[in-house]
Write a structure and sequence with these properties.
The protein has 139 residues and is an alpha/beta fold. It has helices at 6-19, 62-74, 95-99; strands spanning 2-3, 25-33, 36-45, 78-87, 106-113, 116-125, 132-134. A 7-stranded mixed sheet has the order 1-3-2-4-5-6-7.
Length: 139
């Protein structure tokens, strides 16, 4: 289960609309407590994927993840998940998303058509890493 507030989802949707027709990406910061995740901060990240692939792929460099992890530790937070957009596609995780995900983290995907965010999903990778499972939202 993940506790994410409407203002955080709105911020992610705005980021997705701003970066359309390219994928946006970012990191969800908060806390892991009692088997639940709480999002307290959304960090927008510049998609560093090469230009010809930015419409259907994103890249958060490992150096940015390390920088974010150090920031989180310093501020008593955890990386609880990641987000990205699917321009002109549904918010359903792709096979590529499954291959590149890690268990435990939440993955929020925003569907964007004609620069308008229309839907989103939040999922977590199954422990056998075979598929995404919908995550309950407590926001």
């Amino acid at each position: 289960m993940i506790d994410i507030k409407k203002n955080h989802i709105d911020q992610i949707k705005e980021h997705a609309q701003k970066d359309y027709p390219y994928e946006c990406c970012g990191i969800l910061l908060g806390k892991f407590e009692n088997g639940e995740k709480t999002v307290t901060q959304v960090l927008e990240i510049v998609n560093e994927k090469e230009d010809e692939n930015k419409h259907n792929r994103y890249l958060i460099p490992s150096s940015k993840i390390l920088e974010t992890e150090l920031y989180a530790i310093k501020n008593g937070l955890d990386i609880v998940g990641f987000y990205h957009s699917h321009p002109d596609h549904s918010a359903i995780p792709s096979a590529y998303d499954v291959e590149h995900a890690l268990p435990v983290y939440s993955y929020l995907i925003v569907s964007v058509y004609d620069a308008k965010a229309v839907d989103f999903t939040i999922s977590v990778l199954s422990t056998d890493r075979a598929k995404f499972e919908n995550e309950l939202i407590k926001g």
